[in-house]
Amino acid sequence: MPTLTINGRSMSVDAANDTPLLWAIREQLQMTGTKFGCGAGLCGACTVHVNGEAVRSCQTMVGDVAGKKITTIEGLSAKGDHPLQKAWIAEQVPQCGYCQSGQIMQAASLLAKNANPTKEEVVAHMDGNLCRCMTYSRIQKAIMRAATEMRTASAAGNERRHT
Ligand code: FES
Ligand code: FES
Fold first, then answer.
1. Where are the alpha helices (DSSP H) in 31-118?
2. pTM for the whole structure
3. Would you give the distance in Å from CA 150 to the centre of its chain?
4. CA distance 157 to 163
5. CB–CB of 58/39 below 8 Å?
6. Which ligand is nearest to the CA of 57?
């Protein structure tokens, strides 16, 4: 029975090593923020982080992530107030919402590494996350807004530390 570390908690799952992580997250652990879209690595609805990298959980096997740090949308921020989540609300991004947790997790992996992405970098990074409702322009605006907010917060923190 593999033990997974999800959102900082250790959880045992009754699953074979070749079970997709998505099934363990949704069916066994009842963490339904992560969505099942295509099941074939083509849509990004199932995106979670493994050691900070965005991965497709429908294509990631439970046995390959035991001992690694898994983060789902439920664990992105303790209070649900990650700058991306706030920007998503400010820009009124979702329509049906189905793809959006995957979109946010994909975007979060970009901003963790690149605090000041260009629009082209955002588009390239988000390329594999599909939205049937075509919310792409609002997704891009929200990512740019969150990046600005994160840089502003970081600069303010640095200033406080040096005064
Ligand atoms: S459900 Fe995993 S990529 Fe579509
Ligand atoms: S908001 Fe409906 S699929 Fe993206």
1. 62-65, 83-90, 100-113
2. 0.95
3. 16
4. 10
5. yes
6. 1
Residue with tokens 């947790």: 101
Query: Max alpha carbon distance in the chain (Å)?
Result: 54
160 has pLDDT over 80: no
Residue owning tokens 């652990």: 29
Q: SS3 for 60? A: coil
Tokens at 22, concatenated: 């998505």
Which residue has tokens 């900082």?
A: 8
Point out the ligand nearest to the CA of residue 130: 2
Residue with tokens 């035991």, as numbered in its chain: 66
| 132 CB within 6 A, ligand 2 | yes
Give the chain's count of helices (H) and strands (E).
6, 5
pLDDT in tens, 10-44: 999 999 999 999 999 999 999 999 999 999 999 99
The finding on whether 37 has its CB within 6 A of some atom of ligand 1 is yes
Residue 5 CA to residue 67 CA, distance in Å, equals: 7
